[in-house]
Write a structure and sequence with these properties.
Blueprint lengths: L30 H8 L4 H29 L3 H18 L7 E2 L5 H32 L11 H18 L1 H4 L11 H10 L6 H20 L5 H19 L8 H4 L1 E4 L2 E4 L18 H33 L5 H14 L9 E2 L1 H9 L6 H21 L4 H15 L2 H10 L2 H16 L2 H23 L1 E6 L14 E7 L7 H9 L8 E8 L5 H16 L3 E5 L4 H9 L1 H4 L4 E3 L2 H16 L10
Helix pairs in contact: 2-3, 2-4, 2-9, 2-13, 2-14, 2-15, 3-12, 3-14, 4-11, 4-12, 5-15, 5-16, 5-17, 5-18, 8-9, 8-15, 11-12, 11-13, 17-18, 19-20
Length: 600
């Protein structure tokens, strides 16, 4: 199926009578759906969306179950997430092609929350994260996500992939481990201690599944490889179990049971559960306070991953998403999903890319994908119970490898500056050893500090003395010294730039020209340092002339009333105007006869 063509302008057809797309009131919401309708939507678009949604639904079915199991929740909770959040975010979000659901990146955050607070706590934290995401969208914070540096996202993404791959070792080798601890190093210790409990049958199932996942895409593209591989392996395990006595592997049916009308049913229940508040009996202020850090972590990662996925979708289609509407839609989806037992959701890059390649035209494709998952639960629930746990672990192992972006990680290590490498390794280590929120927080702060250091190093200064033959470019009269600052004069650079100026204490000049024409911006720290330096020069009976042009710095000077504070200070618009003025001041102070003004 060939993907549709997309125009680079995503807001109405030339010559149409549709109005420009604007947010409803002050809340950005449903902008993607309204853009799709504004361009015109007919049977051709509907057919393309339905076909794309079917393909994505087939891909999302095994992934949603596998990711929910990786978190520690029953498989149906992942399916509920894909159905409820997937349809809600598609209808209310800001990206026409985004497919939302459980993702591998969330496993690292959600698994410890489930271990510590249980399923009710996990669902409550997801609902609270939805509220935070809506607030972020209303506050127009969507654009801020673009300021997270590439080494930060690469570091924590590779770290998440490492943790996910480690979590799959339990089911791949069939290790007898009841629960895994919260921290990575403790997990490794528990897995190593259980190494003697491994099963060759489980490992064989995982190896065959992984081989099929790698080879089937080369043989056929008509049926998604995950669905075909899991189907083949499940059927093979079922047949071998009937033919070979003693052969047994863990399946969804043996691992998970659902009580329906007082009867324990293996696998997943049919249909959606009745809606209800996720916290059960009650929610206290203490519970909210305890779950708030977890909710913040879910909201932060959800926003980052969803908006990154939307940016990549823009690059694939030539369209442009609305980041604030996407955050609002994502927040509402995460508020609704826990009411039906769904875990936290965000934009899924692999499913979004599949949606685009399958020919999606609008958010209706993502809604169709949610409907396909609902039909699968209604019709295929008994068959899902036969899927081996080792096969799902192999699928997640491949997902972890694909999301690790190992080539980007190695590329940063090889060609990036040492500061970026430091940020990358710090984010990776903190993600693996602690958590993603700490990794992103520390990584962004560290990247900002290193960036400011690099910017400070770019700010250069030079000093020229009149009649000293120091420069052929600028000729200065006797008794005049020029001090030029080239670069931003902010708190990171002010100390070095003004410190060098204060060090000029000789008696070889009586007028100082401060050339700020190459200073694009000056902050309060730079202003205070400059003010102190001017005061020190005037106290030493030196005349001071500031030369422009001064776009933003001049505004700062006016607000600070610099000339009122220093009446002896002279300010000229250009260096060409400053040199004759400095010459006249030097002649008056040195008692020299008037001379022709030097040239520049």
């Amino acid at each position: 199926m060939t993907p549709p063509s997309h125009s680079s302008v995503d807001a109405g057809v030339p010559g149409s009578t549709s109005l420009p797309v604007r947010p409803l009131g002050r809340v950005p919401i449903a902008s993607a759906l309204r853009r799709a309708w504004a361009k015109g939507y007919g049977l051709g678009e509907l057919k393309a969306d339905v076909l794309a949604g079917i393909v994505v639904g087939i891909v999302a079915l095994p992934l949603s179950m596998a990711l929910s199991i990786a978190v520690g929740a029953p498989p149906q909770n992942g399916l509920y997430t894909a159905m409820v959040a997937g349809s809600a975010v598609a209808l209310l979000g800001g990206c026409k092609f985004q497919v939302t659901g459980p993702t591998a990146a969330f496993v690292v955050i959600l698994a410890p929350i489930l271990t510590k607070h249980g399923l009710h706590g996990l669902l409550t934290a997801g609902l609270m994260a939805g509220v935070l995401l809506v607030i972020m969208g209303i506050a127009r914070l969507g654009r801020l996500m673009q300021f997270i540096p590439h080494p930060v996202t690469t570091g924590f993404t590779t770290g998440i992939a490492t943790v996910i791959a480690t979590l799959q070792l339990k089911d791949i080798f069939g290790l007898q481990v009841t629960t895994l601890p919260e921290h990575y190093t403790d997990e490794l210790g528990v897995l190593w201690q259980a190494r003697a409990t491994g099963s060759a049958s489980e490992f064989a199932v995982a190896a065959v599944t992984l081989a099929l996942l790698l080879t089937l895409p080369r043989l056929t593209q008509r049926i998604p490889a995950p669905l075909l591989a899991l189907g083949i392996v499940s059927l093979g395990v079922l047949l071998i179990g009937q033919l070979v006595p003693g052969f047994s592997v863990a399946t969804i049916g043996t691992r998970f049971h659902t009580v329906v009308d007082g009867v324990s049913v293996p696998g997943i229940p049919r249909g959606l559960p009745s809606p209800g508040l996720p916290w059960g009996a009650g929610l206290s202020l203490g519970d909210i306070r305890e779950l708030l850090p977890a909710a913040f972590a879910i909201a932060l990662l959800g926003a980052i991953e969803s908006l990154l996925s939307a940016v990549i979708a823009d690059g694939m289609t030539g369209t442009k998403h609305d980041p604030n509407a996407e955050l609002v839609g994502l927040g509402i989806g995460n508020m609704l999903a826990p009411l039906f037992g769904g875990i936290a959701a965000t934009g899924a890059l692999a499913r979004t890319a599949t949606n685009i390649r399958a020919g999606a035209r609008s958010p209706i494709a993502a809604v169709t994908h949610a409907f396909v998952i609902l039909l699968s639960i209604l019709l295929l629930s008994p068959l899902v119970a036969h899927v081996p746990m080792a096969a799902l672990a192999a699928l997640l192992l491949l997902v972890a490898w694909n999301m690790s972006e190992l080539h980007s990680f190695i590329g940063v290590l090889r060609i990036a500056p040492k500061s970026d490498v430091t940020v990358l390794l710090t984010c990776y280590g903190l993600t693996v050893l602690f958590d993603m929120v700490m990794a992103v927080s520390v990584g962004v702060v560290l990247a900002a500090i290193l960036f400011m250091r690099r910017m400070a190093e770019l700010t250069e200064t030079r000093s020229l003395l009149g009649d000293a033959g120091e420069s052929e470019e600028i000729r200065l009269p006797r008794g005049v010294r020029l001090y030029e600052i080239n670069g931003p004069l902010f708190f990171g650079a002010a100390q070095n730039a003004i410190g060098a100026l204060n060090a000029l204490r000789g008696d070889d000049y009586v007028v100082m020209i401060l050339h700020l024409g190459k200073v694009p911006v000056i902050d309060s720290t730079g202003l205070v340092a400059l003010d102190n330096a001017i005061g020190a020069l005037l106290r030493r009976r030196r005349q001071v002339v500031i030369a422009g042009p001064l776009p933003r710095p001049r505004q700062v000077f006016d607000k600070a009333h610099l000339q009122q504070k220093h009446p002896e200070l002279h300010i000229t618009p250009t260096l060409e105007a400053a040199i004759p003025m400095a010459a006249r001041l030097a002649e008056a102070q040195l008692g020299l006869p008037p001379a022709a003004a030097p040239t520049q």
